[in-house]
């Protein structure tokens, strides 16, 4: 039987003897790992910055392209409008141009005194002012005051505003016509209803409307004793028009 007489070497001593646990080696590996991590972080940072810069440049480029497209579109619209205006002007004879200028130069109707009073007189004056604004809108294209006294539910009001606006957008207008208020009948508000009723009898002279674009004028015959049924309410400050219906022509 043979027995080894070599002294037993401890595990720690073995690791030391083999060189696997040398402090210098561990330090070198740590430095290498740290250096590699730094390189990775730097590389990732450069890549991220590059992507961010690329996205920013792409965003700026897209924004610039969109702005340029909008500018071109706006210029195209402006040029088209200018061309259309020039064509309409060329189509007008000196006589028609004078009539148009006279219509556009019409002053806005004056608001009658006591028009805003919550009385039958105030309601009647409001209806007359509405008819004056109706004529003014077709002559000048200005519908600001007409809108201000029209309730959202008033289909007739919206129709007048839209038609007058479109007429002038197409280069048209209406000559001034004569009109007068003959009679007005005011009805007290019925329980459960928001509007008073006001029947207005009016005379209207011949109406000449010019559609523009060189089209022939449209002539409407005079109307006498035309009855207009107004739905009208006082909102605490002024009378508002909720509807207008022509009862007879």
Commentary on this structure:
With 249 residues, this protein is α+β, with helices and mostly antiparallel strands. It has two domains: 19-91; 101-248, Nuclear Transport Factor 2, Chain: A (Roll). It has helices at residues 11-18, 23-91, 94-104, 120-140, 144-148, 155-169, and strands spanning 173-174, 179-187, 196-204, 207-210, 218-220, 223-234, 239-248. It has a four-stranded antiparallel beta sheet with strand order 2-3-6-7. The chain is flat, with a radius of gyration of 43 Å. Residues 1-27 and 32-44 have low confidence and may be disordered.
Determine the N-to-C terminus distance: 141 Å
Low-confidence stretches: 1-27, 32-44
Largest sheet: 4 strands, antiparallel
Mean pLDDT: 80
Which range best describes the helical content: under 10%, 10-25%, 25-40%, 40-55%, 55-70% or over 70%? Answer: 40-55%
Radius of gyration (Å):
43 Å
> What's the number of structural domains?
2
Keywords summarizing the entry:
249 residues; DUF6318 family protein; three-stranded antiparallel sheet; disordered N terminus; DUF6318; four-stranded antiparallel sheet; 6 helices; 2 domains; flat; 52% helix; single chain; alpha+beta; Nuclear Transport Factor 2, Chain: A
Helices and strands in order:
Elements: H1 11-18, H2 23-91, H3 94-104, H4 120-140, H5 144-148, H6 155-169, E1 173-174, E2 179-187, E3 196-204, E4 207-210, E5 218-220, E6 223-234, E7 239-248
Antiparallel strand pairs: 1-4, 2-3, 3-6, 4-5, 6-7
Helix pairs in contact: 4-6
């Amino acid at each position: 039987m043979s027995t080894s007489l070599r002294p037993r070497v401890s595990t720690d001593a073995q690791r030391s003897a083999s060189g696997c646990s040398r402090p210098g080696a561990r330090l070198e590996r740590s430095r290498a790992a740290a250096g590699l991590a730094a390189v990775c972080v730097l590389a990732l940072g450069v890549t991220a910055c590059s992507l961010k810069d690329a996205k920013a440049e792409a965003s700026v480029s897209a924004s610039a392209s969109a702005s340029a497209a909008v500018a071109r579109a706006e210029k195209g619209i402006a040029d088209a409008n200018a061309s259309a205006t020039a064509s309409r002007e060329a189509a007008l004879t000196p006589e028609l141009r004078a009539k148009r200028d006279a219509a556009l130069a019409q002053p806005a109707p004056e608001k009658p005194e006591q028009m805003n009073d919550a009385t039958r007189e105030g309601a009647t004056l409001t209806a007359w002012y509405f008819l004056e604004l109706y004529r003014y809108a077709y002559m000048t294209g200005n519908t600001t005051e007409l809108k201000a006294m029209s309730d959202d539910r008033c289909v007739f009001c919206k129709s007048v505003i839209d038609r007058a606006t479109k007429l002038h957008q197409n280069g048209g207008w209406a000559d001034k016509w004569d009109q007068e208020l003959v009679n007005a009948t005011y009805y007290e508000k019925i329980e459960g209803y928001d509007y008073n009723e006001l029947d207005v009898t009016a005379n209207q002279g011949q109406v000449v409307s010019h559609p523009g674009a060189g089209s022939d004028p449209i002539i409407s015959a005079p109307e006498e004793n035309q009855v207009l049924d107004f739905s009208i309410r006082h909102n605490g400050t002024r009378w508002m028009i909720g509807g207008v219906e022509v009862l007879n022509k």
